[in-house]
Amino acid sequence: MRDEALNITNQTEASLRIVGFLCNWCSYGGADTAGVCRFRQPPLLRIVRIPCTGRMDPLFVIKALAQGADGVLVSGCHPKDCHYAVGNLYARRRLEMVGRFLPFIGIDPRRFRFTWVSASEGQRWQQVVTEFSEVIEKLGPNPGLRSHAG
Amino acid sequence: MNTLQSIVESIWDQVDVVLGWRVGYDPLHPVPTFVRDRKDIASLIWNPLCAPNLSVFLAKFFRTASQRDKKIGILAKGCDSRSLTALIQEGLVDRDRLLIVGLTCPGTVDPDALAAARTQSGPITAVAFANGMVEITSADGVECVPLDRVIERRCQRCRHAHPVLYDVVLHDFEPRPVPKDPFAHVEALENQSLEARKAFWLKELERCLRCYACRNACPLCVCQDHCLAESRTPKWVTQKDTVADKFLFHMIHTLHLAGRCTECGECERACPMKIPVGLLKEKTAQIAMDLWHYESGTDPGARPPLLSYDASVTGI
Amino acid sequence: MNNASFVSHAELADLLRRLSEQAEVWVPTRQAMTPHRPMFRPFQAGMDLDFQPMPVTSAKGVLFPQGEELLKFRKEKSLSEATVTTLLWEDPAVFRPTIVFGCRPCDARGFLVFDRAFLQGSFVDPFYKARRDKNLVVSMVCPEPDAACFCGAVGSHPADTEGSDVQMIPVKEGYVLHGLTEKGQEFLKNVENTPSQAQQEEARQVWTSAQGSVDSGASLTDDAQHFFKRFADTAFWRFHTERCLSCGVCTYLCPTCYCFTLTDETNGVHGERLRSWDACMFHHFTQEASGHNPRPTKAERFRNRVGHKFSYFPEKHGRFACCGCGRCLRHCPVGMDIRAIVRALGESEEVHD
C-alpha cells in the first residue's frame, strides 16, 4: 500500500532522489535559467522553493535524509547578495554546523551540500546539479531510517 | 571560614529567594529547593550529590520580575554558572537580578556508578565526602569509594569545575582538574564507521520513552509549552513509538541547542533510560569550537554563533 | 502445599525458552549500556536476565503499548467529489498470548487499575480486553525494596499476591512457584519439578521476611481524604510543585498511569489512527482547541495527578490508582515525592506564597 502511495507521488520510484532547497530570489531563478537555456541536467532533483536560505531549518536536512532522500542540496544567493541582506550569512553558519554534525549520527556527509548560485548563473547551476548527482549516484540509495519508521 | 550557610546569611537582605538544594527522600538524591524563609537557610546543603542544575528554573519560572522584586540568589556549580551565563547572553535572565553563589565542584556523583562500586548491599543511610573519598554508611557498616570512580560522565569531561560567573564563591571542594581531552567520548564514537555510529544511536534511542525529561531538565530549552516536538502544525514528529520518531525528537533538541549548549549534562542525567543524549550536544559544542572558537556560556557579552554572522568571511 | 513447583537457576532459561514458544514472555533484562536499569523485554535466548533491582520501566507496555494502531484510513480523490476519506477496517490483530515473568507484586497490582479503567466501566476497551484475556502474570516476591518503595503505604506489601496468577519466591537454588489462579495452576504444568521440604521452608521464610520489609509509615488513606479541603489552596500546590520540571518520567514509568491520546498520523494519502501514551504533566494534555488550558501550570497538573491517584479514582473504584512501586520518585530528575505531598494534605500548617 505504501508502494502505491509512492507511485502516486513519484513516477520513477527506482531512481535516486535529491531534495533541493532553493532560494526564491536566486538559485530558483538560476535553475529556471538553466531550463530555459536547455542545459541538460540529471533528473534526480526535486525542488522545494524557500523564500531565502535564512529560512533553511537545519532540521530540514536531517529529516529529509532520515526519511530516505538520497541527497540534500541547498542553494542560495552569493554572500552579500542576499535579498534580505544577511539571510544567507546566518544560513551558512547553520548549514556548516549541520554538515559537520551529520557524520556523528551516522549519515554520510557527502549526501549534503550547500552552495550559492545566482539567477543568471544557469550554466553554473547545471554544473552544480551534475556534479552533485554524480556523487549521489556513486553513493547509491540512502536507506535513511525508513525501515525504522512505523 | 565561609560556609554555605554563612554566605547565604550574608546575602539574605539583598535577595527574595535562594535557589539551592536540600535533602531529598534518601541521602543519594538531594532536591532543588526555594528558600524564602530565613529559618530554612539551615536546610541548604552542597555536596557532590547536588546534581540538578538550578538555572533550569530561571528562564522558565523567574523570567519576569515585578517592580518590588529583589534579587534571586542561586547556587551554581561550574557547569551551572555556564548555563547562567548563556541565559544572560540570550537576554533570558537579567544579570542584575541574580546573586550568584559560585561553588567549586569536584564533580557530581552518578548514583548508578555508586551502586556498582559498592561491595555492600544494604540501603544507604548516610553519605559523606572527605579527601576525595565518598564515605557510604549502611546497615552493613561504613565503606569508602574514591569520588573519581563514581563521577558522572558529564563531570569526567568538565572544563569549568570552577564557576565562570559569580558574586561570591564557596570553596568547599577542590575543583576537578581539567581533563586532557574533554571530547574523548565524542572521538571514541567517531573512531567507528558511519554504519556503526548509526547503529549505536538506533540502539540507544530505541529505549527513549519520549518523556521529555531531557528537554525539561535543560536550562536552555526555553520554548516551554510550544515545543516543536509536540506541535501538530507543523508536524515534525508523529506520536508513533518508532525509533525514527525518537531520533527526530533528539535531533530537534540537539540542533536547537547547537552553539548554545553549555554541556551541563542535565539532559543525560535526567534520562531515566540513561541514553547518552549529552553526547549529541557535546558534538555540536565541539563543532562550534572548531568553527568559531566559541565556547558557550563563558562570556556574558558574547553572541552565540548561530544567532549572529560574520560578513567578512569569504570562501564558503 | 501441593501446587508448588520449583525451577532452578540453571533451568530457568530453558523454561523461558519453552514458554516463549507458546507466548511472548516479558522478562526483566539487563542492558549492556545501563547495567543498573533492567527493562522488560520479550524473552530471547541468550538474554541477560536480572531479577534483582526493580526494573526501570514497569511491565505496562505488555497490555498497553506506548503506541497502538487502532485503525487505518485512506483519503481518495474522485473526479466528481471533494476528498473522500475511506476507513479501512481491519480485523483487530490476533494478539499473541503474553506472560509477564518476574515482575514485582506492585507491577502486578498495577494491572488491576488498568482493569478498572479499561474493562469494568460502561465501556470495554476491545484492544485491552483482547490482550488481557491472553495474559498471565508471574510476580516475584520483592527481594530488595529501597528507600523509594512505598507499597506498604498503599495497602500492599512486597510479598503481595493480588493481581498475580503465579507467585515466584526466590530461594538459594532457584525459585519456588505457587499457582494462585486457575490460569496459574495450568501454567505450572510447564514446570515439572517440585520443591524439596527444605526449599519450601526457605520459601516460607523469604515470603515472611519480605512481607514486613517495607515500612512506609502509616497508610496514605488518612491523608488522602483531605484532598478536597486542599483543592483550592493554590499556595499549597504552588509550594509543593515548585521544583517539578513538568516532564513525563513519573507517568510514563508508572504501572498504573493509563492516560492516552488519539492522533491521526498520515503519510501521503494513507494514515492510521493511533493511541499513544500521554502524560497529565504535559502542558498539551488538557489544551483545548480554543487555546484555553484549564490546567495552565504545573501546580494544577500535579494537583490533578495527586487527585486522580489518591482521591477521584479511589472514590469511584475503591482503590488507590497507585501501587507504591516508587518509580515516579526514584527516577524523577528532581526527586518529586508524591508520598510527601499526600502526607502534607492533612497537615494543618498554612502555606503562603
Automatic annotation (TrEMBL), chain A:
Keywords: Iron, Iron-sulfur, Metal-binding, Oxidoreductase. It comes from the Bacteria. The keyword RNA-binding does not apply. Residues 18-140 form the F420-non-reducing hydrogenase iron-sulfur subunit D domain. Pfam families: FlpD (PF02662). The keyword Disulfide bond does not apply. GO terms for molecular function: iron-sulfur cluster binding; metal ion binding; oxidoreductase activity. Signal peptide: none annotated. This is Coenzyme F420-reducing hydrogenase delta subunit. It comes from Desulfosoma caldarium.
UniProtKB/TrEMBL annotation, chain B:
The keyword Protein biosynthesis does not apply. It holds the Pfam family FrhB_FdhB_C. SUPFAM superfamilies: alpha-helical ferredoxin. One of its GO terms (molecular function) is metal ion binding. InterPro entries: 4Fe4S_Fe-S-bd, 4Fe4S_Fe_S_CS, FrhB_FdhB_C, Helical_ferredxn. PROSITE patterns: 4FE4S_FER_1, 4FE4S_FER_2. Keywords: Iron, Iron-sulfur, Metal-binding. Residues 251-282 form the 4Fe-4S ferredoxin-type domain. It comes from the Bacteria. This is 4Fe-4S dicluster protein. The lineage of its organism: Bacteria, Pseudomonadati, Thermodesulfobacteriota, Syntrophobacteria, Syntrophobacterales.
Automatic annotation (TrEMBL), chain C:
PROSITE patterns: 4FE4S_FER_1, 4FE4S_FER_2. SUPFAM superfamilies: alpha-helical ferredoxin. Keywords: Iron, Iron-sulfur, Metal-binding. InterPro entries: 4Fe4S_Fe-S-bd, 4Fe4S_Fe_S_CS. Residues 235-265, 312-344 form the 4Fe-4S ferredoxin-type domain. GO terms for molecular function: iron-sulfur cluster binding; metal ion binding. Signal peptide: none annotated. It comes from the Bacteria. The keyword Secreted does not apply. This is 4Fe-4S dicluster protein. It comes from Desulfosoma caldarium.
